[in-house]
């Protein structure tokens, strides 16, 4: 099932049954994201296309194990990041459309505590098109009886090739296993050979494509940023709430969410700036 939103020059297709993904995003008829096809896919081998939520954590959890508050999460090892877990669980399951209009929609996801993630939570993605902006609000609510670790983020595959500049002031070094290796340092100058960067202290990312399409990405409540550009086919610009490489909740930016509390972040793509 696809849900289509349109406003002015912006067009979006949502695929709630495919992990709550954005399957298509166009501005003035041009693809902004690599568009997803309609074929089914293995939840562990998702297409390098569209965009998906990173909830309740992003990137890697070391050894696929997380101990927090007397409970232990035993997450599945991801085949492409073994022996670690990768990118939360919510993009592996269907989401439910809660509200929908011509220009806005809300998806909801409910998780019941299990050995994989021993805390119950509810998550939302709220999408809105304003005519010149795509706005995504991410939320997670702790529906358990004890505090839980929580993080938010978004993983888009922007169509390449593109030109990009960011204003992040901090760079977190990482090893060959994509795990952070130490404290952050000044992010400048950028090493042209660095295909993946873990950044923080950022406000905006400016993107321009051949043909004149321009976009500015901003976020609220997401202090970290992952840039992944393996080749010219796509660039992942991922606003996230915490640093990669979670080890038993000892990680920069990961929050402890109290019972009934809600953590919210917002991502805004502004076009023609």
Task: Give structural notes.
The chain has 273 residues and is mainly β. It has one domain: Beta-galactosidase, Chain A, domain 5 (Distorted Sandwich), CATH 2.70.98. Helices cover 0% and strands 47% of the residues. It has no helices and 26 strands. The strands form 7 sheets. Strands 10-11-12-13-26-22-21-17 form an 8-stranded antiparallel beta sheet, with no helix packed on it. β7 and β8 form a beta hairpin. The protein starts with a strand and ends with a strand.
Q: What is the 3D shape?
A: globular
* Main sheet: strands, sense, barrel: 8 strands, antiparallel
What assembly state would you assign to the polypeptide chains in this entry?
Answer: single chain
Number of helices: 0
Report the sheet-strand fraction.
over 45%
Structural class: mainly beta
Provide the CATH architecture: Distorted Sandwich
Short characterization:
By secondary structure, the chain is mainly β. The chain has no helices and 26 strands. Strand 1 (3-7) and strand 2 form a beta hairpin.
Write the layout of secondary structure elements.
Blueprint: E1 3-7, E2 10-15, E3 21-27, E4 30-31, E5 51-53, E6 60-61, E7 65-68, E8 71-74, E9 85-86, E10 96-100, E11 104-111, E12 121-129, E13 133-142, E14 148-150, E15 154-156, E16 158-159, E17 163-166, E18 170-172, E19 185-186, E20 196-200, E21 204-208, E22 214-220, E23 224-231, E24 234-240, E25 255-257, E26 262-271
Antiparallel strand pairs: 1-2, 2-3, 3-4, 5-15, 6-9, 7-8, 10-11, 11-12, 12-13, 13-26, 14-25, 16-24, 17-21, 18-19, 18-20, 20-23, 21-22, 22-26, 23-24
